[in-house]
Write a structure and sequence with these properties.
CATH class of the largest domain: Mainly Alpha
Mean pLDDT: 89
Radius of gyration: 19 Å
Helix content: over 70%
Number of strands: 0
Oligomer: single chain
CATH topology of the largest domain: Tetracycline Repressor, domain 2
CATH architecture of the largest domain: Orthogonal Bundle
Order of helices and strands: HHHHHHHHHH
Shape: elongated
Strand content: under 5%
Number of domains: 2
Distance between the termini: 50 Å
Length: about 190
């Protein structure tokens, strides 16, 4: 990746987040980056192509294995690490001045483009499956009772995560780090 390519991606991320996809042109990105619009076509065939690249980068960043890489964590530390990692993920979203805007745009875009919607659904399903695997690992080590329905608990964690993301995107003021911690605690509680 060249320096110009990286600048284009960064600028597109910021402009898509602040202006929206529909109100951001390749020309406006080119001007911000300091290149001509025809030069943009060397890197991207269209605005949709650029959008797809930005979207793929974001999806790669928010995948479960990247956001919550707990493979090397000892089983008895999974709950605490999951809480801390989730809380840090929430703080990172709040600290990035463009993240919530770009996610709002992608949510809106996914309603118009089935392929994008399917990618979001895949990410959500991967989170559910990943959470279930983590809970199963804990169950194998006796940290969660054998009577616990891991599928439902993993769906609960996924739903909490999605609710937090939606609340953040809408600007709803809640204590999301406490909500996440309580959700994880609930999923690790004994009983059904």
């Amino acid at each position: 990746m060249t320096e110009t390519y990286i600048k284009i991606i960064k600028c597109a991320y910021e402009l898509f987040a602040t202006r929206g996809f529909d109100r951001t042109s390749l020309n406006s990105i080119a001007i911000e980056v300091g290149i001509s619009k025809p030069s943009m076509y060397y890197y991207f065939t269209s605005k949709d192509h650029l959008l797809d690249v930005v979207f793929k980068i974001i999806l790669d960043e928010i995948k479960l294995e990247k956001a919550y890489d707990l493979r090397e964590v000892e089983s008895d530390q999974i709950k605490e690490t999951l809480i801390k990692t989730g809380q840090q993920h929430i703080r990172n979203q709040l600290e990035d001045p463009y993240y919530l805007g770009i996610m709002r745009e992608f949510s809106s875009y996914s309603a118009r483009k089935k392929q994008v919607e399917n990618q979001f659904i895949t990410i959500i399903n991967d989170y559910r499956a990943g959470f279930e695997d983590l809970l199963h690992r804990c169950q194998e080590h006796g940290l969660i009772g054998s009577e616990v329905d891991l599928r439902t608990r993993s769906e609960l964690l996924t739903s909490i995560m999605n609710g937090i993301n939606m609340g953040l995107q809408l600007g709803v003021s809640l204590d999301y780090t406490a909500i996440w911690a309580q959700g994880v605690e609930t999923c690790f509680a004994t009983g059904q």
